[in-house]
Design brief:
The chain has 139 residues and is of the alpha+beta class. The chain contains 6 helices and 5 strands, in the order H-H-H-H-E-E-E-E-H-E-H. The chain has 2 domains: 80 residues, Winged helix-like DNA-binding domain superfamily/Winged helix DNA-binding domain (Arc Repressor Mutant, subunit A, Orthogonal Bundle), CATH 1.10.10; 47 residues, Ferric-uptake regulator, C-terminal dimerisarion domain (Dna Ligase, domain 1), CATH 3.30.1490.190.
């Protein structure tokens, strides 16, 4: 998404496209690194005058509340954010800490004894070691 498109996207979703919000959404969309609030703050603090951690947290909470981002609780001590609101899973590498997306098919979940359930939302995460970290190691 380009910045003008992000402004329109936020507006269409009932969010006033103030500069700080646009910058945070632009970061989420362009980096796609499933960042923590702290990661976003450290990346943007020198770019945005007067940016505070509170602003980052409030912005991310607004994005989640309005459905333009998801909060990911992959580890119990860490909350990450994703601008990709489509249904998909996440893999977190225990070595490098990177989080990767993978597709997840809803029909597969229905085989998990949920035949008479209606699935509106689901989050699925896996932890292990990514292929990049495994290079050079014998498994």
């Amino acid at each position: 998404m380009q910045e003008i498109t992000i402004k329109d996207y936020l507006s269409e979703n009932g969010i006033r496209p103030m500069n700080k919000r646009v910058k945070v959404m632009n970061y989420l969309v362009s980096k796609r690194n499933h960042p923590t609030a702290e990661m976003i703050y450290l990346e943007l603090v020198n770019e945005i005058t007067g940016l505070s951690k509170t602003t980052i947290y409030n912005t991310l909470n607004l994005f989640v509340q309005e459905g333009v981002a998801r909060a990911l609780n992959i580890d119990s001590n860490e909350l990450r954010y994703d601008a990709d609101i489509s249904q998909h899973g996440h893999f977190k590498c225990k070595e490098c800490g990177e989080v990767f997306d993978f597709s997840l098919n809803k029909e597969l979940l229905e085989d998990l004894r949920l035949k008479n359930f209606v699935l509106d939302d689901y989050q699925f995460s896996i932890k292990g070691v990514c292929s990049i970290c495994l290079k050079g190691k014998s498994v």
